[in-house]
Amino acid sequence: MKMLATAYLRTSSATNVDGDSPHRQSDAIMAFAARQGIEVVSSFWDAAVSGADPIEAREGFLALLAHCEADGITTVMVEDPSRFARSMLAQELGVLLLTKRGLRLLTATGEDLTDHSHPAKNAHRQMAGLMAEYEKANTVLRLRAARERAKADRGKCEGRKSHVELRPELAQEARRLARRSPKTGKKRSLRGIAVELAALGYVTGRGHPLSHSTVMKLVA
């Protein structure tokens, strides 16, 4: 009988919600699960959620916990430890919470983050957590320095442009699709609009329909 598992995905900022990250995470998890004979029966995603946030404060992870309890699933899978947490405190408290619930946390490289069978395993996990926290802080500092240099050189530092700014025709089409049908008086759902836009060729870089959050911004 196959082991049943649920996948957990996390993207840390709104700018990469529509990017490659969630697809990459899912692909890595599914590939490892297939090799190990694990059946991933569900997936939960926290979009634009910091890795320093406690897992019990994350909407997606709370739904995952409820799902595991209701369906008797005991294995949670992530791409790597940083997708679970990017601060040592969040990681260790999260691992403790999962352990108390009888849940196992596996990475797509086969590491069991809830394995407490030897002190060396705990030490390795904690050291990895510290490095993830350091790398995150270092990245924030580098990006801040880059913005300050850009501002000093140009007098301003532009952020990432939205879909509306980059492709005004996309926003126009999305707003058209968001109107009520003159025949039925009903409006399409965000998912329905995304499907219609995909049929017109408006998709993500990976060829997937646009996310609900992107469609919401387009029709606002």
What does this structure look like?
The protein is α/β, with parallel strands linked by helices. It folds into two domains: 3-131, Rossmann fold; 163-219. It is 52% helix and 11% strand. It has helices at 21-36, 59-71, 81-84, 88-100, 119-154, 163-166, 168-178, 190-199, 212-219, and strands spanning 3-10, 38-46, 75-78, 104-107. Strands 2-1-3-4 form a four-stranded parallel beta sheet, with helices on both faces. Helix 7 packs across helix 8 (190-199). The longest helix is centred in the middle third of the chain and has 36 residues, at 119-154. The protein starts with a strand and ends with a helix.
- According to CATH, what is the topology of the largest domain? Rossmann fold
Count of strand segments = 4
Which architecture of the largest domain does the CATH hierarchy give at level 2?
Answer: 3-Layer(aba) Sandwich
Based on secondary structure, the structural category is alpha/beta
Strand order of the largest sheet: 2-1-3-4
Helix content: 40-55%
* H-E order: EHEHEHHEHHHHH
Oligomer: single chain
Q: Any idea what the shape is?
A: globular
Topology (SSEs and partners):
Blueprint: E1 3-10, H1 21-36, E2 38-46, H2 59-71, E3 75-78, H3 81-84, H4 88-100, E4 104-107, H5 119-154, H6 163-166, H7 168-178, H8 190-199, H9 212-219
Helix pairs in contact: 7-8
